[in-house]
């Protein structure tokens, strides 16, 4: 789908429905697909399962769809259903296809907290590795599990480059 430059009509001219569909509906869809940030929430463990240190935690990979080809990772966050009582759950976003880690500072959730929003050390996206291509496989790696942490969810935000 591509942007179609609308025609300029004169006063009193009839506008065919097919033109309206092309110029209005298709262009609105194009804007939505290319301009709205996309957020993917990845439940890497269910709410009652303790997280563990492993590459590809939860066995879930996110596949980048065709319309997001060339987009970039612009935001990351994490949440837990049950907070870690000690230790800092730590996550990395891995682009398996490109064989690169997407974060230069890993995503963390402080002990006794349920989200990364107030983490003492904020995650930093590596701008050299933030771009994705259609078909790329992304996975979540857990580098530190913490104690008693359960129900991990990772949110990834993508925008057009």
What does this molecule look like?
The relative contact order is 0.27. The chain has one domain (38-159): Jelly Rolls. It is built from 1 helix and 10 strands. With 161 residues, it is mainly beta. Strands 2, 4, 5, 7 and 9 form a 5-stranded antiparallel β-sheet that branches. Helices cover 12% and strands 33% of the residues. Strand 4 and strand 5 form a beta hairpin.
- Number of E-type strands: 10
Judged by helices, strands and strand pairing, the structural class is: mainly beta
How big a fraction of the residues is strand?
A: 25-35%
CATH class, named Mainly Beta
Helix content: 10-25%
The outline comes out as elongated
Distance between the termini: 17 Å
List the topology elements.
Elements: H1 17-35, E1 38-43, E2 61-63, E3 72-82, E4 90-95, E5 100-101, E6 103-105, E7 107-108, E8 124-125, E9 137-144, E10 150-159
Antiparallel strand pairs: 1-10, 2-9, 3-10, 4-5, 4-7, 4-9, 6-8
């Amino acid at each position: 789908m591509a942007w179609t430059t609308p025609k300029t009509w004169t006063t009193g001219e009839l506008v065919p429905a097919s033109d309206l569909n092309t110029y209005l509906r298709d262009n609105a869809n194009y804007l939505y697909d290319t301009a709205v940030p996309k957020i993917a929430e990845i439940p890497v463990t269910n709410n009652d399962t303790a997280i563990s240190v492993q590459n590809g935690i939860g066995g879930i990979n996110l596949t980048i769809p065709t319309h997001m080809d060339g987009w970039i990772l612009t935001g990351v966050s994490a949440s837990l259903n049950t907070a870690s009582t000690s230790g800092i759950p730590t996550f990395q976003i891995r682009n398996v296809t490109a064989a690169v880690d997407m974060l230069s500072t890993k995503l963390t959730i402080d002990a006794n907290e349920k989200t990364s929003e107030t983490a003492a050390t904020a995650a930093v996206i590596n701008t050299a590795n933030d771009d994705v291509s259609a078909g790329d496989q992304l996975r979540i790696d857990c580098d530190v599990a913490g104690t008693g942490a359960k129900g991990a969810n990772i949110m990834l935000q993508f925008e057009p480059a």
